[in-house]
Amino acid sequence: MLTQLLLDRISGTLTRRKGSPSKLEQYDGQSSDVTCANSVESNLNINHPKTSQLFNALRLLLEIVTLLSLLNYLANLIHNTIVAQSKGPRNLVWPCVFVVAKFCQYGTQIIEHCWGIIVGTLNRRPPRPRLRVKGDCVPSVDIIVTVCGEDHDIILDTVKAACTLDYPSSKLRVIVSDDGSDKALKAQIEDLNRSCVNVFYYARNKSSLDHHGFKAGNINSTVHFLAGLVGRPAPWIAFLDADMIPEPAMLRALLPHAVAFEDVGMVALPQHFYNIPADDPLHQGMLPHSEDDEVARDSLNATWCPGSGFILRRKAFIDIGGFSEVSIAEDVLFSWTLQGHGWRTIYVNERLQYGLQPDTISGHIKQRTKWVCQNTCHLL
Q: 320, exposed or middle or buried, with CB in 10 Å at 0-12, 13-18, 19+?
């Protein structure tokens, strides 16, 4: 958190990336002559060598100081317990229990900081700049909000946020893809359509006897549904989970990276959450994943699809045949398939979507069990 705040204080101008940026793709039957470089502004110059070195140095320094402080605290705790034991026969059961509890409490944090130091030392590439596409000369985007039985209030918060993004309404369509075929939700979306004409409801026909592919099948079916709507399908498709509320600047932040090169297939954001306790005892905020793991993967063109908060080139989706409907980890497998077909995947480390984590122990265990199973299956 502190390193993020320090980064937000650094400002400057953009240094152009190496390579030849492509022109914006054709959309709505018209061709744009405005290149990415001419329609993008930057409010951060983190590509500058001095700024990059300062950022990495501060991050590593904070990680090292925090790690040493934790180790020093635990070492003193053990030393004091041993000294107390040596001074005479005393009942030190509860002090020992306290020491064990502290090791359990800080053990994961020590591992987290060690990993941050390793990644920060090995990853020498500067963070990606924060870019914003300007004006109304932008490509069309279809936003798919995947839904399956969530509370209506949660769904509508996400849909309304998607409808009011800082983006021309004529270039934006929002599709609520309901895999639960909720008639009450359908009525609410149709009512919302009166004030937000670019929002649509879709529910596929599913047979209880056939394999329907779960979320992956829902997405694939919705993409095919888009082809039948009035107007040609958008060249870019964005995805949001039912509980992930996007910030207004989400599309304007993702598209500059997406259109910069013709081989960019996906640009992804980290997931952040607004129902995490202040001390985050179960590490549900997943900061090591978003701040370290994905940054390292991005430097190797190995960014994972986060499942929500990413934009996808429609051409790339068609090229690989959509999401795999036989995997419980369709998002990770999808990104690997993109990379295997030669498409570039990009990670933009900005806080532009906020959602919900499970608020019960059973829900947390179920979520993490699914992740362990899916990663194990992929490794095998």
A: middle
Q: What is the pLDDT of residues 64-96, one digit of tens each?
A: 888 899 899 889 888 888 888 777 666 778 788
Average pLDDT along the chain: 80
Closest by CA to 310, choosing from 275, 274, 261, 346, is 346
Q: Are 317 and 223 contacting, i.e. CB atoms less than 8 angstroms apart? A: yes
Separation in Å, CA 305 to CA 88, 188, 238, 268: 59, 30, 12, 7
* Residue 27 DSSP symbol: B
Region at 179 (left for phi over 0; alpha for psi -120 to 50; beta for the rest): alpha
pLDDT(213) > 80: yes
Q: Is the pLDDT of residue 5 over 60?
A: no
CB-based contacts of 113-118 (< 8 A; 24+ apart in sequence): 113/63, 113/66, 113/67, 113/70, 114/67, 115/288, 115/292, 116/59, 116/63, 116/288, 116/291, 116/292, 117/60, 117/63, 117/64, 117/67
pTM: 0.73
DSSP states along 179-205: TT--HHHHHHHHHHTTT-TTEEEE---
- Residue 254 main-chain phi, psi, to 5 deg: -85, -40
Asked if 144 and 239 count as a contact pair (C-beta separation under 8 A), the reply is: yes
